[in-house]
Amino acid sequence: MDPILDLARPSVLRNPYPAYARMRETTPVLWHEPLGSWVLTRHADCLAVLTDSNGFASDWRRAGEEIPAPLLSVQTLDPPEHTAVRHLLLDGFRAQDRQALHDDLEGRITDLLAESARRPSFDLVGDLAEPIALRFVTAFLGVPAPELDWFVPMSRTVVDGMDAGLWPEKHEPAVAARARLAEYAGGWLADPPKEGLIAYVAAHAAESGVAETVLRNSLRAVLHAGYESASRLLGNAAAALLTTPGALDAFRAAPATAVDELIRYDAPVQADARVCVTDTELGGVAMKAGDPVTLFLGAANHDPHRFARPAELRLDRAPNPHLGFGRGAHACLGASMAIRLTGSVLGALAREYPQARAVAEPEHRRNLTLRGLDRFEVTLRPDTGEEVRP
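^ that's the sequence the OP posted. Answer follows.
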């Protein structure tokens, strides 16, 4: 059985961490022929790659690859080109009134939970995590939220394409979906809103020295990555809380550390990729310039050499050096916002609906790069012993 393809089996998809452990124990630095890539599963090895942008590139042009201009963004450039656009976006992040955004969101969270509580059960993914995440990221950008029925399938198709190395048939639909997303975001800088991140970037674009194409692509990436990371984090975290006995109560007792542990325990970003720039050695294995390297961050976050009893959800775990948001030059720009958003939603759930519980097993999407739920049926009503039907 192929150890990577095996991760997509439904039984393994529900809990891939024992499979990661077998890989980490037997072949922690594995050459996977179908992917044409080295695969890393140890925390130390993944951290070494993430923090060495000189030796391991996100910009595959440094290894001789041709990258189309529409794919050049803050996600795919390396320093020094990456530095200018990252600083511009970070300055834009800091310039926003994040407290006002969160105050608005708190009201929306309260309303959605109250609405859901009136129903026998609801889909936490489609009815809560996805609309909250999309509203939050678009409000931060300063643009109206698109219709969920239009945006969500397109966004999911782009995510499916991240696994095209294993399933090539996912590549072309993802390219088409990315093009539609680019068309949607294409006019933002030409006709910017009066407030939000886009307004800031538009006002400071000329002095930044960053090419307009890169700025457009980077704002599109903020929309897509921000939405997917936040919605999947909310779904994964809620599933962990509501399927682990006592976890919802424990969340109330340790809110300051709980979200970081939920990210470590079942992070949305399970894999990332780099390419070797020069011949090097990692984990006792010789790698050549041009070799792709796939980092299984989900496996790294369960490495017992870095985390005591990693299979346990310990919401008071500290310190917690997980790699759920990456490290180094490409660490997630919106990590603090995602943590606060998740804390707000789960805090309201734990505080106002301590009787919340799952009424069906979480259903996972067949994604290996970004881990997330397709559906998760939950009730906010007390357990009366009667069967709850959606």
